[in-house]
Amino acid sequence: MVGHRGACAYRPEHTIASYELAIDMGADLIEPDIVVTKDGALIARHENELSRTTDVATRPEFADRRTTRRVGRKRRTGWFAEDFTLAELRTLRAVERRPDLRPLNTAYDGQFGVLTLEEVVELARRRSTPLRQVRVLAELKKPSWSAERGQPMVELVAAELRRLDATSPDGTVVVQSFDAAALRRLRADLGDDGPTMFQLVDVTACDDHLLTNAGLRAVSTYAQGIAPCVDHVLLRDADQRMTGVSDLLPRAHAAGLTVVPWTLAAENEFLPLHLRSSEDPAARGDALGAARLLLALGVDGIITDNPDVVVAARAELEQTAAPAIDTAVDTAA
Ligand code: G3P
Ligand code: CA
């Protein structure tokens, strides 16, 4: 089970507190998104624009860095990681992305800084024990776009994984990206005995080709798994009604791929209609029900904002599957 941006339902995403809590709750992996700084450092931020998850907009010394830029297909205005050195970014403080949805998390605003990939790897290693390996699922954000702007993210990540001794398939780091070309380049660079990789798949039409049988076979030549949007597994209509279950799991397994869907979150906003508790998007619905359903279908993992929910669902399943213990006392002797 993967703690998405840590345990971001309970702490501001990508902070040390969020990752620590995910591990405390039982996450097997913690998930930093990775973007590149001006000086080529790899940092844990969901997107290169920083104003939704840091206090950069309140800092007069950086006011002149505000700009408008096309990032991928979208035009964004704000402050961008690639315009800051790592030393400058270290002066920023993290804030909650969704105060409307997760107001309790704002209590932690300003308490934590921005982490590097290296620091997240160090945390995972520090929290691993002989009985429990904690791993890092590092998502490369827009690596091809980054490369076009002169920041070769794939090469930087390959070099960093080598430096951190994290290039083996069972090593600390698993890599994922929506960018298939970047994953192929990373595989070519680090080799077939390089790190485990997941191909992320969105629900947009341009990703559909990845999920045909031929597409899945192609993915299996460079990645060990797919991480599809959960809506590819639990199908919904435009009214958010669940309409059924797709055949993606058996087809991906037949292609030799593990399946780790994203993102299970407990608020009504994210759940199918029948699992919502009310019309309040911020109220918690039946996320445990959604986790039970995914596990019963045979997913190999779940990427979640609420690691505690998936741990509970997994424990239930293990209990059901455990062989019955004969507690009868033989009194015949
Ligand atoms: O890890 C899967 C998921 O994180 C991909 O989407 O936007 O949350 O990074 P996003
Ligand atoms: Ca992510």
TrEMBL record:
* Top enzyme class: hydrolase
Catalysed conversion reaction: a sn-glycero-3-phosphodiester + H2O = an alcohol + sn-glycerol 3-phosphate + H(+)
Task: State the InterPro entries in the record.
Answer: GP_PDE_dom, PLC-like_Pdiesterase_TIM-brl
Q: Which residues form the GP-PDE domain?
A: 1-314
Is ATP-binding a UniProt keyword of this protein? no
EC id? 3.1.4.46
Do the record's keywords include Signal?
A: yes
User: Which keywords belong to this entry?
Assistant: Glycerol metabolism, Hydrolase, Signal
Q: Which Pfam families match?
A: GDPD
Query: What family does the Swiss-Prot or TrEMBL record give for this protein?
Result: Belongs to the glycerophosphoryl diester phosphodiesterase family.
Name-wise, this protein is glycerophosphodiester phosphodiesterase
